[in-house]
Amino acid sequence: MMSAIKLVVFDLDGTLLDSVPDLALAADQAVQELGYPAVTEEQVRDYVGNGADILIGRSLSQSINVDPSLSPELLAKARVLFDDFYKASGHKLSHLYPAVHQTLDTLVANGITVALLTNKPSKFVPELLEQHKLDKYFKHVLGGDAFEKRKPDPIALHWLMEQEQVSADQVLMVGDSKNDILAARNAGCHAFGLTYGYNHGEPIANAKPDFVADIVSDVLKAVGIDA
């Protein structure tokens, strides 16, 4: 338990929202449009977490390691197709994980500032937040292109600390991937890992967060709130 926390920063995909069904559909449509083999939802669960460019590269490669022989032109074309298919999906298959609203409501009611920090392209984020009634909670919303580097780089967390005038030990980063845990470590913040998201097939405990939980509402206990 850490009662000094003033800012809780959440990842989005795999932490608050299970968006893989829609991401997988878009990735599959994009690679097949280019004559590459289909990808499954199961594969895409391991491919997400490092931004859309890496996701599409992995989908074309059918591997967590992007094939270096894929041309920049092909990758760029695939990314445009992916964006178009993802937008067209209307994100109908995505859904919130359990206890998300309750957790965010309780944090805000207890005077804790919440922010969103995702590697997802910024242009897709507002619509998703609105669709799932999450837009009212976050004081700051930062997508994967908000800065020149994305998680695990700490640049966005440093910016948030500066905006909120808080120190690293007053910040908790909540995520499902080692990129979230590494971003927290690189910024000197506390790290909270969720077991159910997308972490390239590895247990989140391997990344050694300060807390490991199966449900997001355990964040409340971590910051000293009796839910």
Automatic annotation (TrEMBL):
The active site is at D11 (nucleophile). Its cofactor is Mg(2+). It catalyses: 2-phosphoglycolate + H2O = glycolate + phosphate. The keyword Transmembrane helix does not apply. Mg(2+) binds at D11, D13, D176. Pathway: Organic acid metabolism; glycolate biosynthesis; glycolate from 2-phosphoglycolate: step 1/1. Pfam families: HAD_2. Belongs to the HAD-like hydrolase superfamily. CbbY/CbbZ/Gph/YieH family. This is Phosphoglycolate phosphatase.
